[in-house]
Write a structure and sequence with these properties.
alpha+beta; disordered N terminus; five-stranded mixed beta sheet; elongated; 23 helices; seven-stranded antiparallel beta sheet
C-alpha cells in the first residue's frame, strides 16, 4: 500500500498532522507526525498516514526502519490493565496494574522477510532452550519456529521507499501476541501512544462494555544478552526459569540425572557495566509530593550500604526533580528511566513493575508505584500539624477479620486460606499499625517529630520496593535476625535495622511508656540484604565461570546459611511459624505478649484517645472494633501456627554441616503460644475489652450515611473465640502437632504432644469449673469449646492417625465425665458462696441457706435453714459413731443461698446439661467411651 502525503518536512522536524481526520482507531491522535515526512533516531516510530486510495481507511502505522537495520530484532512485550473496571452485575472485571499476559513468553522477534515485502513476527519458545550443540536441530524441529504473523510493508509514494512501515491495527488486534483480545471485546480505540528511543507505549480501550483499558509496552532488547547468574535457594532472587535440553557437563553439585535436560534459574538483576556510570538511577517522579521526596531518596540510596561491600558505594542513586542531572526529556514510560511514582488510585497499594530480558534475567527498567491506599491512611492529615487517633480510625476498614463469615464457620476454611486472607489484608494491617503508632507516640512527640516519624515509615517502604526492583524477593524470617535488646538500642538498629532483611514485613517498633525513643521503622537495609546484593551484583571483568568469581559466590552462599530465610510460598504453606509477616524480634511470642499488654493499656484510655471534643462517639466504636476485631485475631492466629510448628531451613550438604534442615519448634515455645491463645480467649479478664464505665459510649456506624448502632461486643468476642478454638482443634493442626512430635529422635528435648495440647486446652478453658456457678462469659467460652470439640467425629477426620483419634475421644469423654459429676454436685453449690463459720457448739447460726456441722475432719450433710438454727450435733447426720464425737469441739458453717443464687444455680445446671448433651449427641460418651 502506498502512503499518499502532500508535502515533506525537513529531516528531523516533527510536524503536527494536517487537518484531516485521525484514524478511526486513534480519534485523539493530534501530535503524532506523518510517518513519511519525519526522520528520528528512535527505534520504534509511531505515526499517521493517509491511505493511497480514497476508499481506504486512515492508518496508525509503525516505522521499524531503525530497529530492523540488521534485518531482525528481539523485543519484550508487556501488557497490563491501565485502569480498573467494575460493573454492578459482574463486580470487578479488571484490576488496575494487574499483568495481562496470558503466556509466560513475552519475547517477540521481528524479522524482515527474504523478499523484503513484509515483516514476520515470531514468538520464540523460552521455556525450552539448549546449550548442547547436538540437541539444537532436534529442539528446533521439535518445537517449531514460533511464527505468529506476517505484516505487509507499507510504502511512501514520494521518496523514502526503503522505509519499513507496517499497519499497527494488526498488532493491536492480536494483542501483540501476548494477550488474548477475544476476551476483552471486539472494538478497540487507541487512547494514547508514545515513542521513546528504545521503547513504545500504547494505551488501548477494548469494548464496547465494559471498556477495558490495556497498556502495551514494547522494549528493544540489548543486542548481546547479559551473562546470566544462577539462582540459589539460600539467597533467592526473582528469576527466569527454563529447561536446558540435552546432555551437559555434570557440575560437582549435580546428580548425574540433573546434567540431562537441566533446569536453569537465572536471577533478575541490573547489568551495572551496561548502565551510564555503572549506576542504577531511580527517578522520583514529580507526582511524589515535595515534602516526602527526601525520604524517598533515603529509601532508595539506603541500598548503597550493601553495594559498598562490593566496592560500589554509589551504585544506586535517587534523581529528584530539580537536580542538575534531572533529564529534560523525562517520561516515566520511557524505558531509559526507572521511576518511583505517587498514585492517587485507591486500588493501588505499592508495587514494583519490572521489565526483564527473558534471555538473561537482566532488569531493563523497574518502576515503583506508591499508592494512596497504602500510605494515604497515615499521611493526608499531616497538614493539620499532627496525626491523631481519630484520623487513623476513620480510615480503618469497616469489615474486620472477625466479620469475614468464612473465617468463623467451623471446619469450613482451610489453613492456607486463613493465611491468604491475612495476607490480603496486609495493607490494612500495615496502615492500621502505622496509625496506631502515630497515635501512641503522639503523647510524647512534637508535630515536626511526627512528620519525621511518618517520613521514616515511607523511607522503609520505598527501600522495600526498591529491593524488589533490584531482584530481591521477600524474606519473612528477617525479623528473627534481630534480638529484642537490639530493637531497644537506637545505635544497634542504626547499624543492623529492625530486621535482618528490609524485604520482610515487620510492624512498628514501639517503645513502652517510659522507655527511650528508638527506631520505629528500620533505618537501613539488613545484613541478609547486604549478602544478597553481594551474591547478585559481585562482578569481575571475566566470565561467570571464572574460578575466582565462583569461589566468591560459594563463600557468600555458605554465609547465607547463617541467616534464617523463607519466601512467599513458605509463608502460604503455613508449616513454619517463624515464617510469618508482622512479627518482630528473634522472640516473636515475647513481642505478641508485650502487644497484648499494650492493648490492655490502650483500652483504658481509648475513649479519650479516639474521640476529640465535638466529634462523634462512633469513632470510639471503630477504635474498639479495630483492637478486638483486628489486632487480637491477628495475634491469636499467629500463635496458633506455632502449635506443631516446624522450623525449616535452606541448608545444603557439606562435610562440616551439623545443622538440621528441619526442627520442631521447642516445646516450651509451643506452650507459650498456647498460653497466648488462652489469654486472648478471655479478653475481659485480660483487660482487652473496654472498661465497664465506657460501655455507654460504645456505638458504631457511619454518621455520614445516617446509620449507627450499638457495638455488639459479645458477638465480637464469640467470633474471636470460635475462630481461635476452631483453628487450634482443626484436624490439620492436630495432624501437624503429631507430625512434629514424631520428628524428635530419642534423647532429644521434650516434645509438645497432642496429649499435652488437648489437656492444656481442656484445663485452660474449663478451669472455672462446672460444679459452681460461673459467669455468662465463662459459660459462653465453655459452650463454644465443647461444641467444637464434640464436632471432631471419627467420620469427619478419617485421615487422622489412630492415636490422635484416641486422644480426642479420651478428652471428649473426660469433659463428659466432668459435666456428669458436676450435675451431682450442683445441688450443694452456689455462685461464689463459701462455707463460713456461723456458730460454735450450742450457739445460734443465723443463716438463710444451708447449714452443716463440722467436727475435726468430719462434715455433715447440709440442712436447710430459714433464718436461725442452733448448732447441735444431734440435729445433723454425720457418718460416724456417736462415741467419736466430742460435741464441744464442733462448729457450724453456713452456705448463704438467696433466691438469686438459686436462679443462677438452675441456669448453671442447664448450662452443664447442655454441654453433656452436646457430648452425648456427638456419638462419643453415650456409646460407652466415657461411662461404664
Amino acid at each position: 500500500m502506498g502512503l499518499n502525503l502532500q508535502s515533506l518536512a525537513p529531516p528531523g522536524e516533527l510536524r503536527e498532522p494536517p487537518n484531516f481526520a485521525c484514524p478511526g482507531i486513534f480519534p485523539s491522535c493530534h501530535g503524532l507526525p506523518q510517518i513519511c515526512e519525519n526522520a528520528s533516531p528512535n527505534k520504534f516510530r509511531l505515526g499517521l498516514a493517509v491511505a493511497g486510495g480514497p476508499s481506504d481507511p486512515d492508518n496508525l502505522v509503525l516505522d521499524l526502519t531503525n530497529a530492523l537495520k540488521a534485518g531482525a530484532v528481539q523485543i519484550l512485550v508487556m501488557a497490563l490493565f491501565k485502569q480498573g473496571a467494575y460493573t454492578d452485575d459482574a463486580g470487578l472485571v479488571a484490576e488496575r496494574a494487574v499483568p495481562l499476559e496470558d503466556t509466560s513468553s513475552t519475547l517477540l522477534e521481528l524479522r524482515l522477510s527474504g523478499d523484503h515485502r513484509s515483516v514476520n513476527v515470531y514468538k520464540p519458545v523460552m521455556d525450552l532452550r539448549t546449550s548442547d550443540p547436538q540437541s539444537t536441530y532436534s529442539l528446533r524441529t521439535g518445537i517449531g519456529n514460533g511464527a505468529q504473523a506476517s505484516l505487509p510493508r507499507l510504502y511512501c509514494i514520494e521518496g523514502g521507499h526503503d522505509r519499513i512501515i507496517v499497519d499497527m491495527s494488526l498488532l493491536l488486534q492480536a494483542g501483540f501476541f501476548v494477550v488474548n483480545t477475544n476476551h476483552l471485546g471486539y472494538t478497540k480505540t487507541v487512547i494514547d501512544a508514545k515513542e521513546f528511543p528504545t521503547n513504545l507505549d500504547i494505551a488501548v480501550e477494548y469494548g464496547p462494555v465494559p471498556l477495558l483499558r490495556v497498556g502495551y509496552t514494547l522494549v528493544l532488547l540489548p543486542q548481546a544478552p547479559m551473562q546470566p547468574r544462577q539462582n540459589d535457594d539460600r539467597l533467592l532472587y526473582f528469576d527466569t526459569q527454563y529447561r536446558d535440553k540435552g546432555s551437559h557437563h555434570k557440575q560437582a553439585s549435580q546428580k548425574l540425572s540433573e546434567a540431562v535436560d537441566s533446569k536453569v534459574s537465572m536471577i533478575w538483576r541490573y547489568n551495572l557495566p551496561r548502565l551510564p556510570d555503572q549506576t542504577i538511577r531511580f527517578h522520583v517522579d514529580p507526582s511524589v509530593p515535595a515534602r516526602w521526596r527526601k525520604y524517598f531518596k533515603r529509601g532508595i540510596e539506603a541500598w548503597n550500604a550493601a553495594f559498598t561491600l562490593i566496592e560500589r558505594p554509589s551504585a544506586v542513586r535517587a534523581v529528584l526533580p530539580g537536580d542538575k542531572d534531572w533529564p529534560a526529556d523525562y517520561d516515566m514510560s520511557d524505558a531509559r528511566f526507572s521511576a518511583i511514582t505517587w498514585d492517587v488510585s485507591e486500588e493501588t497499594l505499592s508495587m514494583g513493575i519490572a521489565k526483564v530480558d527473558p534471555r538473561s534475567g537482566e532488569i531493563l527498567k523497574c518502576d515503583v508505584v506508591m499508592g494512596d491506599s497504602w500510605v494515604k491512611t497515615y499521611l493526608e492529615e499531616l497538614e493539620v500539624e499532627w496525626v491523631n487517633f481519630t484520623n487513623f480510625l476513620q480510615k480503618t476498614p469497616a469489615v474486620s477479620l472477625l466479620m469475614r463469615e468464612e473465617l468463623v464457620e467451623p471446619g469450613k476454611t482451610a489453613p492456607h486460606r486463613i493465611l491468604q486472607l491475612l495476607q490480603q489484608g496486609s495493607a490494612e494491617r500495615k496502615s492500621r499499625s502505622f496509625g496506631f503508632a502515630a497515635a501512641y507516640m503522639q503523647k510524647r512527640l512534637e508535630s515536626s517529630e511526627l512528620e519525621a516519624l511518618l517520613g521514616s515509615g515511607l523511607q522503609e517502604i520505598v527501600a522495600h520496593e526498591v529491593g524488589h526492583c533490584l531482584g530481591l524477593r521477600h524474606n519473612f524470617k528477617g525479623s528473627m535476625g534481630i534480638s529484642e535488646e537490639c530493637l531497644k538500642d537506637i545505635h544497634c538498629t542504626a547499624r543492623h535495622g529492625t530486621s535482618a532483611s528490609v524485604m520482610d514485613y515487620v510492624p512498628v517498633n514501639l517503645p513502652k511508656p517510659g522507655e527511650a525513643l528508638r527506631h520505629i521503622w528500620s533505618p537501613t537495609v539488613g545484613e541478609y540484604d547486604k549478602l544478597a546484593i553481594r551474591y547478585g551484583y559481585t562482578h569481575l571483568q571475566t566470565s561467570e565461570s571464572d574460578p575466582g568469581l565462583l569461589q566468591i559466590l560459594e563463600d557468600v552462599r555458605r554465609r547465607a546459611e547463617q541467616f534464617q530465610t523463607c519466601y512467599d510460598d513458605d509463608l502460604y504453606l503455613g508449616e513454619d511459624p517463624s515464617c510469618l509477616d508482622y512479627d518482630l524480634s528473634a522472640d516473636p511470642l515475647g513481642y505478641w505478649e508485650q502487644q497484648l499488654d499494650l492493648y490492655a493499656d490502650v483500652q483504658r484510655h481509648l475513649l479519650e484517645m479516639s474521640v476529640a471534643p465535638r466529634e462523634s462517639y462512633d469513632n470510639y466504636g471503630r477504635a474498639v472494633h479495630s483492637v478486638v476485631g483486628g489486632f487480637l485475631p491477628d495475634i491469636g492466629i499467629n500463635a496458633v501456627y506455632y502449635l506443631g510448628g516446624i522450623n525449616n531451613t535452606y541448608l545444603h550438604k557439606y562435610a562440616d554441616q551439623t545443622r538440621r534442615s528441619r526442627q520442631p519448634m521447642p516445646a516450651e515455645t509451643q506452650r507459650r503460644a498456647l498460653a497466648i491463645i488462652l489469654r486472648i480467649l478471655r479478653p475481659k479478664t485480660e483487660g482487652l475489652l473496654p472498661p465497664d464505665s465506657n460501655l455507654p459510649y460504645l456505638v458504631d456506624g457511619s454518621q455520614l450515611q445516617g446509620a449507627i448502632e450499638s457495638l455488639d461486643l459479645t458477638d465480637l468476642v464469640r467470633r474471636l473465640r470460635q475462630l481461635l478454638l476452631e483453628e487450634v482443634l482443626r484436624s490439620e493442626r492436630l495432624l501437624q502437632v503429631h507430625k512434629q512430635e514424631n520428628l524428635l529422635a530419642p534423647g532429644d528435648a521434650d516434645a509438645f504432644t497432642v496429649s499435652e495440647l488437648l489437656s492444656t486446652l481442656v484445663y485452660g478453658v474449663m478451669s472455672a469449673g462446672l460444679d459452681k456457678i460461673t459467669s455468662e462469659d465463662e459459660q459462653d467460652l465453655q459452650r463454644i469449646f465443647v461444641q467444637i470439640l464434640s464436632s471432631k467425629l471419627p467420620e469427619h477426620v478419617q485421615f487422622l492417625p489412630a492415636d490422635v483419634m484416641t486422644q480426642l475421644r479420651y478428652f471428649r469423654s473426660f469433659v463428659y465425665e466432668m459435666a456428669d459429676g458436676a450435675l451431682n454436685r450442683l445441688s450443694t453449690t452456689a455462685k461464689g458462696a463459701q462455707w463460713s463459720t456461723c456458730a460454735m457448739f450450742n450457739k445460734t447460726c443465723t443463716c438463710t441457706g444451708l447449714v452443716r456441722l463440722r467436727l475435726s475432719n468430719l462434715t455433715s450433710a447440709g440442712l436447710w435453714s430459714g433464718t436461725d438454727k442452733r448448732c447441735l450435733p444431734l440435729d445433723f447426720t454425720v457418718n460416724t459413731s456417736a462415741s467419736d464425737l466430742d460435741a464441744e469441739d464442733a462448729w457450724c458453717e453456713c452456705l448463704s443461698l438467696t433466691k438469686a443464687d438459686m436462679d443462677l444455680r438452675e441456669a448453671q445446671r442447664l448450662h452443664v446439661e447442655s454441654l453433656k448433651n452436646m457430648l452425648t449427641e456427638s456419638g462419643g460418651a453415650h456409646r460407652g467411651e466415657g461411662k461404664d
